[in-house]
Amino acid sequence: MRLQLPMLERINLGELENAEARKNRNIALANTLGWLGYRNLGASWLWLELIQYYGDAPARTLTGYGLAYDYFDHMLRLDPHFLLGYRLSSLVLAYRAGQPEKAVEILDRGLQQFNPQNNPDAWRLYVDRALLNFMFLGDAEAGRTDYYQAAAWREQVGLPGDEFRQLGDNIARSPLSRRSQFDVWLSVFNSTTDRDTRLYVLEQLVQLGTVLQTLPTGEIEILPPPLPDFPDEEPYRLRL
To answer: Side by side, which strands form the sheet with 236-238?
Structure first.
């Protein structure tokens, strides 16, 4: 009896290339819908296409994420007020596709659309951009500026902001320390409810900290890298 081949070995590369070409055509068709006045329909179509594209892990392993930026670019031109689309760009473009500059470009467009007056969650875009500047682009000063702006926007909607200012100052002082990296990833974990993003960020936190146990509640108890002034710091309890 013939053994079953792994999934990746059973994927027909020719079929994948045809699928990529179809996705390119669908992006063009969605833009045509926008030109005809059906902008929301076109954006919704691209959103569904993007979710399927991102979720097809075997295909992405073989062909990569070459169309990811096109999806975000055209979708958010059709619907520039789609906050989740801007936020997901960090996960897909920076973390998966290795294009942090493109992710920053998309977030910058979102920051032109949102502010505390029209969306109380607008501050989250600055948290996302802070991580890109700090972890991917190596610009700790830009990361600190983003955290300061996130703090200011939080305060405009009645949320505390000093924690983000302190985080910005800490990473600017020691941008390469494991603790700074842990704290930046933790800020992203706490600012999103997207499960895929949380799973990815949790992987980074586990590499930087020490997992103590998984609790019956499903929470993961993780101890951050120690601070010299706080050797007996309490562990964090994180839930997906």
So the answer is: 210-214, 220-223, 236-238
Amino acid present at 46: L
- Cα distance between the two ends of the chain: 42
Closest CA to 126 of 98, 157, 99, 96: 157
Cα–Cα distances in angstroms (integers) from residue 102 to residues 25, 54, 64, 69, 220, in the given order = 22, 16, 15, 7, 32
At 65, the pLDDT band (50, 70, 90 cuts) reads confident
> Rounded to 10 degrees, what is the CA torsion of 35, 41, 47, 50?
-60
Distance (Å, whole) CA 184 – CA 135: 8
What's phi and psi for 161, nearest 5 deg?
-125, -15
Alpha-carbon span 113 to 107, nearest angstrom: 10
The rounded distance, in Å, linking the Cα atoms of 86 and 229 is 38
Task: Report the distance separating Cα 106 and Cα 61, nearest Å.
Answer: 24
Output the CA–CA distances (angstroms, integers) from residue 59 to 12, 20, 98, in the order listed.
10, 10, 17
221 contacts 210 by C-beta, under 8 angstroms: no
For 193-220, write each residue's pLDDT tens digit: 888 888 888 988 999 988 888 888 888 8
- Looking at the DSSP bridge assignments, the partners of residue 236 are 222
Question: How big is the CA angle at 172 (ends 170 and 173), to the nearest 5 degrees?
Answer: 65
Question: Residue 189 corresponds to which amino acid?
Answer: F
